[in-house]
Amino acid sequence: MIAELGHFALILAAAIAVVQMVVPFIGAARGWPGWMELASPAATAQFLLTAFSFAALTYAFVVSDFSLQLVVLNSHSDKPMLYKISGVWGNHEGSLLLWVLILTLFGAMAAWFGGNLPPTLKARVLSVQAAVAVAFFAFILLTSNPFLRLAVPPMNGQDLNPLLQDPGLAFHPPFLYLGYVGLSLTFSFAIAALLEGRVDAAWGRWVRPWTLAAWVFLTIGIALGSWWAYYELGWGGFWFWDPVENASFMPWLLAAALLHSAIVVEKRESLKNWTILLAIMAFGFSLIGTFIVRSGVLTSVHAFANDPERGVFILMILAVFMGGALMLYALRAGSMEAKGVFGLVSRESALVANNILLAVSCFVVFVGTVWPLVAEMFFDRKLSVGPPFFDAAFTPFMVILAAILPIGALLPWKRARIGKAMGPLWPWLVLAICCAALAWVMQTGRSMLAPVGIALAVWLVGGALAELWVRAGRGDLGSKFRRLRNLPRADWGKAVAHAGLGITIWGVAVLTAWQSEDIRVAQLGERYEVAGYWVELRDVRREEGPNYLSTTADIALYRGDREIALLQPEKRVYPVAQMPTTEAAIDNGFLRDLYVVIGDPQQGGGWAVRTYIKPFANWIWTGAIIMSLGGFLSLSDRRYRVAAGAKKSPRKGPETAVPAQ
User: Fold this and answer.
1) Domain check: are 441 and 563 in the same one?
2) H or E element that contains 587
């Protein structure tokens, strides 16, 4: 009964989405206030009904209702409760319902917190958001219904994919979807602005918090996915340039570019066309990511589905929204005249360079991701584009971006002199060069990766500190610290986020350049050396978990004669799913991780054991956490709140926007 109510609520939400798409749009075009006002209650009702539908599906998983086909395919009565709940979105249908839930949530939030938006703009934003929702409601109801019943329910389910039965991956999809789907609202703002024929400083203030929120959630989601891959898959890496990894990384790059471009629109009313285009493309790449995950055209361990019919449906959604948006952009772009004029050396120019580097790096990742598909379709050749291509093609853009970022942050608007901006940065530049030279001397190899990464990390963190110090103004130390404390949270957030990027660059560069790896057949009681540490395989035994069988090893790690850790890596087999997994054991440290993996027994005796010494591994995810904290700090600034973003103007009436022409 509850499942049927959930299905009915989903259908009703789809019907309300159709009304919300049509009525406010007509009202905005005709100037009818009553029709425009319908958008807000419709958005709220749409969210509440979708939330009820999602709660009904969650209840079915929690109580193991095996009359639902989705529960049978993705759950089991012996599964821990956390994974029963995460099983709701650990599949195509449930994850799509989560997508729609977050889509309606952002629409409802725009209705709740958009009180100061001009009525026509708000109506059009909510109408476009509803149009996106209608497309996905149609997708889920026509091709991916999560509430299908079975005529004869089985006694138990087939279990969730064992790789997904992990805390890191339980929370990874919701955060990723908050980022993916959050970009739908920036898309709606862009289309509404094109329909209005107006993009100004107020529009830049309205769109920035939504862009920032999407970027922050994408950062958290990508970091959780990387962390899961690091400790769960047992291959010892944190990023493989997998198609689905790339599918989330590309919108992240464009969201970062959009965030910085919106600053120029708000402060200087420049880059209007570019900002609108970025808003369209950022959501477009979110849809491309959905297509990659759910169509089966590209193989990935992360993919949810491989149904070509569903892929065609998503491709149609992508074609309609991106094609329509770009056509509207082509028609309206001429009306968005830039007002701000700036010199070649200015903060505007630095932000333009930032946007170009981020957009081109996104294009590089996109080409590398889809090229195997293109080669197979048009040239009948099977190609593999792996980490060597991405590392070589993508890294130079990030190096240039990190190099110019601290300078650009200190340049004034309109016109500037690089020499003056470099004044507070010279000590940090000298320190960065000295750290790079020290790393070069200390390392045994001759790779430039670690020295360059360390130099860029010190440069970014030092640049963030220098920017805060400059913003504190002149005077004695006491007054400067008081002004530092009173700086807007957005200034602190920007500095924290830039510093977090530097810390992540440090971790990636040093780990990649200096990690040590040892793969061997180890005998019980044997002790061997890896990069100054001693490793001993003490015992291997069979154990039984809640819903799996485990081969667990005891591996002792020594520094000299002192035991510093006893690690227990596992190889698990899930009998219901008939699938093995590898559980790495990691001794985490501030300066290094000791990482061991137990393999299969060998014919001549002994066990395959892989050992890694990974310097500064945790700095990768620490930097991502710091970047996210910087984003949340900025969001907490009252100037970023949507309700506080309205353009101050004399009260001439309720209508402040230019009607559509």
Assistant:
1) no
2) strand 585-588
